[in-house]
Amino acid sequence: MAETDTYFRRGLGLKKEVAPVLDAEYHSAIVAQIKARGHQAQFGDVTVRLAEEFGFCYGVDRAVDYAYQTAMKFPDHRIYLVGEIIHNPHVNQRMREMGISFIYPDSDGRFDFGAVTPDDVVILPAFGVTLHDFETLRQIGCILVDTTCGSVLNVWKRVDSYAREGFTAVIHGKFQHEETRATASQVNRHGGRYVIVRNMDEARLLMDYIEQNERALSRGELIELFRLKASPDFDPDRDLIRVGAANQTTMLSTESLAIANAIGESMAARYGDSARDDHFRSFDTICSATQERQDAVLKLMEDPPDIMIVIGGYNSSNTNHLAHMCREYTTTFHIGDATCIDPERRTIRHKPRLDAEAPEVETEDWLPEGPLSIGFTAGASTPNNKIGQTLERLLATRGLAVPTLA
Length: 406
Description:
Layout: E1 7-8, H1 15-26, H2 29-36, E2 40-43, E3 46-50, H3 58-73, E4 79-82, H4 89-97, E5 100-103, E6 121-124, H5 131-140, E7 143-146, H6 150-164, E8 168-172, H7 178-185, E9 194-197, H8 200-211, H9 219-225, H10 236-239, E10 243-247, H11 253-271, H12 276-279, E11 280-282, H13 288-300, E12 307-311, H14 317-327, E13 331-335, E14 341-342, E15 347-350, E16 361-364, E17 372-378, H15 384-397
Helix pairs in contact: 1-3, 2-15, 6-7, 8-11, 13-14
């Protein structure tokens, strides 16, 4: 949709005005200093190592920037946000303090825009919104500020092309996640279909059916299993003949690629290598920022630190995957923010597993005595000040202050 007086996609002309505010609220001097020193610094007998890529990505930075510009440009309008701008509780709380009201979905993922009027401003989050929700807001006639990430739009284009060409979109993602719901909705432009798989195990169920091997579920069983994760009229006999792979941008990239490759192999097994291209499409829709942060963690793990701290919202998909990767190499604590570390009690509250429903647990005496190397990374929705605050509390647990690095 082209930019108009009621639709903003490229900012609102106030970038310079909000820059000092954003810098003051989200910058960390100590993090900047450690980055400048090659991402490593020594504090007493504690060696701190930062991943080379972490924290706010371009898409998140842009979304937050646009939200601040919106509040500055429309001080006399009611401003709504569809869902959360990003999955970081502190950033979202800051939005509320700026007077932005959140519209949350119901248990089925549906938004109620009944309170929105043509005089209001509505911010679309970095995850994007479904075609249905976009059209509903456009019909209301309110001012729209669209912060949908460019990497998400890239996936949408692929899914749209699959639908146009008659291919079912097989999306690797979490079916209740805002981004995945928005991505899946793109097939509706051309009457296409989709099915969402959470992991390789779910993808394998589709592949078994494609290959019609002895493990394959019946048509009815497969329809029921994916009832909430596929188009309402999903029919595996019709919809698994030609498929195209796509993904939620914040998923583990190696898993997304493995799923796509495996589906392609299933098509070749069913129809022959020469017919593979007639039945399967796949494009690289891995978010570059997600990939860079995952690659940076793997590089850090070439010489694993004694302890790894991963900072970010517990409902942040990309943060959860970073923590999951780190656990394969070293003792890892995924924390929401600095307040999870209690220097006086020498405890840390953390999420112990990738499972979205995993409860937060508390661990005592988590920081051993003696020389120690500690690695840090953070999800793409975590600002640098939260990383700096975490470092300060960690060092305080060892009785160390944070000096100004030369």
